[in-house]
Amino acid sequence: MTNQAENKSLQKLANLQRQHKGLINLMPLQTGGMLTDAAKKALTEFGDGYSVCDFCEGILCNVTNPPIRDFVQELLPQFLGSEVATITHGAREAKFMVMHSLAEPGNSILVDGNRHYTTVVAAERAGLNIIEVPNSGHPEFRVDVNEYAQLIRKHTPKLILLTYPDGNYGNLPDAGKLGGIAQEYNIPYVINGAYAVGRMPISMEEIGADFIIGSGHKSMASAGPAGVLGMKRKWEETVLRKSGKYSKKEIELLGCTIRGVPLITLMASFPYVKERVKNWDEQVSKAQWFSAELEELGFKQLGEKPHRHDLLHFDAPVLYEISKRVRERGYFLYKELKERGIWGPQPGLAKSFKLSTFAADRQQLGFVIDSFKSILNKYS
């Protein structure tokens, strides 16, 4: 690389900024993770390296300044409805921790057909066989938890996992009923709540699960990557077991968990997150209204109806037809929305797309609806 090219590259690194800053944000990966003012302030205050470790004596979750111990040992378990909680590098790491601790290579686990790809990757990394409970297919893609019982009897899995909701359609299977099935067969039950914990009320205890997993950067107004893991106390010594040589270090966390900005923003946003889940009914009402309005335009909402989550997936045949006759092809939708101050559907997708109504108010969503109308009129 020439000096001129290198300088140009360095200049780009020194002037990083997001292209969609200030736009109405409908991106499902981001709407639940947008930082609070308190988190932004804490981010600056604790942004220097491992700043939260200033007063660590070997166990991060025992640090009292900042108050990590209070957060992890008291506030987080209460919020999750668990007996024990810890923080992780993300939801996928939490899934791997549980799988790796409870099962051995060659064992089988049972998961839903709408599982996130990281559920499969975590199981593969642990050397496990994956058995899936199928969904109902297009257009609702429902998972019937009653089908778990038959597969439990057939395969005797080491654990079962339910994605609640899934990241494709926002479906919410009957997690409580599956809790009863898990207890009947005495099998460990994992709830992957990456799009639930921090967005909506959810309790591991009420569901009847053994583990609950959340994502800080997806749903708890945190910088990422960050995750949370709650569990029954009986699993603490198994999943959070310590090293034989370094007695303060947990093996599954590789001795220590998230440090610095992800953790401190997770903590700073927590009071706000704890309160916002109380407004979940309005979030559902808002999503249902928005979905109905888009269906009036010829889009087809996939997933369960009536829908009970802010994550929405639409088939859009009318947009797909437009994409086949314009120069930008599928990217025309991204371009048109961005020009109107809207960020959300993945660039290049027009035939179907996902979005989330979580972070936008009704006035903003009304503008989004009008923008879709305008786009359709422009190309009619």
Mind explaining what this structure looks like?
This protein has 380 residues and is an alpha/beta fold. It folds into two domains: 19-32 and 279-379, Aspartate Aminotransferase, domain 1 (Alpha-Beta Complex), CATH 3.90.1150.10; 37-276, Aspartate Aminotransferase, domain 2 (3-Layer(aba) Sandwich), CATH 3.40.640. It has helices at 3-14, 28-31, 37-45, 68-80, 91-102, 117-125, 147-155, 175-185, 204-207, 216-219, 236-239, 261-276, 280-296, 317-323, 331-339, 362-379, and strands at residues 24-25, 84-88, 108-112, 129-133, 159-163, 189-192, 211-215, 227-231, 300-302, 311-315, 342-343, 352-356. A seven-stranded mixed beta sheet has the order 2-8-7-6-5-3-4, with helices on both faces. The chain has a three-stranded antiparallel beta sheet with strand order 9-10-12, with helices on one face. It is globular, with a radius of gyration of 22 Å.
List keywords for this structure.
380 residues, alpha/beta, Aspartate Aminotransferase, domain 1, Aspartate Aminotransferase, domain 2, 7-stranded mixed β-sheet, 3-stranded antiparallel β-sheet, 42% helix, globular
> Which topology of the largest domain does CATH recognise?
Aspartate Aminotransferase, domain 2
Average pLDDT: 94
β-strand percent reads 5-15%
Straight-line distance between termini:
49 Å
CATH homologous superfamily of the largest domain? Type I PLP-dependent aspartate aminotransferase-like (Major domain)
Q: Major beta sheet, specifics? A: 7 strands, mixed
Number of strands: 12
Number of helices: 16
Query: What's the overall geometry?
Result: globular
Strand-and-helix sequence, N→C? HEHHHEHEHEHEHEHEHEHHHEEHHEEH
User: Which sequence of strands runs across the widest sheet?
Assistant: 2-8-7-6-5-3-4
Based on the coordinates given, report the CATH architecture of the largest domain.
Answer: 3-Layer(aba) Sandwich
Low-pLDDT residue intervals, each spanning 5 or more residues: none
- Can you identify the CATH class of the largest domain? Alpha Beta
Cα-atom radius of gyration: 22 Å
- Helicity level, as a percent range? 40-55%
The number of distinct structural domains comes to 2
Structural class: alpha/beta
